[in-house]
Write a structure and sequence with these properties.
mainly alpha; Rossmann fold; 20 helices; 57% helix; membrane; transmembrane helix; transferase
Length: 402
């Protein structure tokens, strides 16, 4: 259910008479940017409803836009689930605010099936210090920078626009809960900052305060922000990644259109977008069965035998598997947070390198697959044939039969 947005959008694209002058990728991009406009409108309406004045809504929208570094990631990562979810969440908040202004109705709770989100509870338990976990999915979140602590320079940027001071003045107690979540989880910053925009503006709605704020903004904002904004608007750059471009071109030219390809989540998202090939594991992570499938595909970076890895990949109908040196030899994370370490822990194996291991972890009987396969040993070449490589990627074709 995680991609029903794209499914609906694809149907809409086929129905609307726009195929002749608008390519699918631009239709997708324009839709996402349009949703961000809806997001700002919803924040505007919510603040207006809370305060009773449109000036409060205008201030909420202004703060959201001027603090866009901390309120949204849409400008550099368009397909994020939050870019779909937050606009509709804000619309729901605006609708609930409107309904609750006049009368309240009893709310009936429903028992929800939380199986797909169980890894989140394990993640939160470990994040807040209530024990450790060996769960692969929870540890994957714990080690990701996006779920790390909030950088302190965020507060300096928010203070420059007077947003942070107003927020503390009006809603210090009410904002305690979402602030704690944002401190513990960097990704939640984008929900917290929109919350700040709405309620800080709502709190500053008296005539006296508004007079001071508008005078301050009039004198302070143009010289403080206009030069920087104009510089940002003048920057036009391309993302340069020749190895990935070479890989995508090779896949399009040298693999059948119905080829099934295995790899990391982040890479397969680009493979699907650029080549249209079939994927073994969908690059979204909110479904339990998809998480388990991804964990199995990631065994190519674990200490497993070639027979085991071949059987796992073949069970998903895999024709090609892409190995990334940046994952196999990862150094960005510390020991215990590298993907290969998370797999070793989940498999009950001792991690590589110097350092402590939990006492019940054991040495694996096999070397690390992603390293050993590059030696072209017969025990590996009988299952996997290398068909492409560059400085970053290695593509192996699976034998049709053992």
């Amino acid at each position: 259910m995680n991609v029903y947005q794209e499914l609906f959008l694809s149907i809409l694209y086929r129905i609307l008479p726009i195929q002749n002058y608008l390519e699918p990728v631009y239709f997708y991009i324009y839709t996402l940017f349009g949703l961000q406009a809806l997001y700002v409108i919803a924040l505007y309406v919510t603040s207006w409803l809370l305060s009773g004045t449109w000036l409060s809504g205008l201030l909420a929208a202004f703060w959201y836009i001027t603090n866009r570094i901390d309120t949204t990631r849409v400008e550099f990562t368009i397909p994020l689930r939050e870019n779909w979810a937050l606009p509709f969440f804000a619309v729901q908040i605006a609708a609930i605010t409107y309904l609750f202004r006049s009368h309240l109705r009893p709310l009936h709770e429903k028992i929800l099936n939380l199986e797909s989100d169980e890894h989140i509870f394990k993640f939160l338990k470990a994040k807040f210090g209530f024990g450790t976990t060996r769960d692969f999915d929870a540890n994957l979140y714990l080690c990701e920078e996006a779920f790390g602590l909030l950088p302190f320079n965020t507060f300096a940027r928010l203070s420059d626009t007077l947003l942070f001071y107003a927020y503390l003045f009006v809603l210090l107690l009410m904002a305690a809960a979402p602030a704690v979540v944002a401190f513990q989880n960097l990704r939640m910053k984008y929900l917290w900052t929109s919350h700040m925009c709405v309620f800080a503006s709502f709190g500053l709605c008296s005539t006296e305060v508004w007079g001071f704020v508008l005078k301050s903004v009039h004198l302070y904002t143009p010289q403080r922000f206009c030069p920087g904004m104009m510089d940002e608007l003048s920057e036009l750059r391309e993302f340069y990644d020749p190895d990935t471009v070479e890989l995508m071109n090779w896949i399009k030219s040298n693999t059948p259109k119905k080829a099934v390809i295995a790899g990391s989540m982040q890479l397969l998202a680009g493979v699907k977008l650029c080549t249209g090939r079939i994927l073994t594991n969908h690059p979204h992570y909110e479904d339990k069965s998809l998480r388990e499938r991804t964990k199995q595909v990631y065994q190519v970076y674990a200490k497993r035998s070639p027979e085991d890895v071949y059987s796992i990949l073949k069970s998903f109908g895999t024709n090609y598997v892409i190995l990334e040196d940046s994952i196999c030899y990862e150094r960005r994370h510390s020991r215990g947070c590298r993907l290969r370490d998370l797999l070793d822990i989940a498999n009950g194996h001792i991690m590589d390198g110097l350092g402590e291991n939990e006492p019940d972890l054991k040495a694996s009987l096999y070397p690390r697959f992603c390293e050993e396969i590059k030696k072209n040993l017969s025990s590996y070449s009988m299952y996997f044939t290398r068909v492409f490589q560059n400085k970053t990627f290695h593509v192996y074709k699976l034998a049709k039969h053992k």
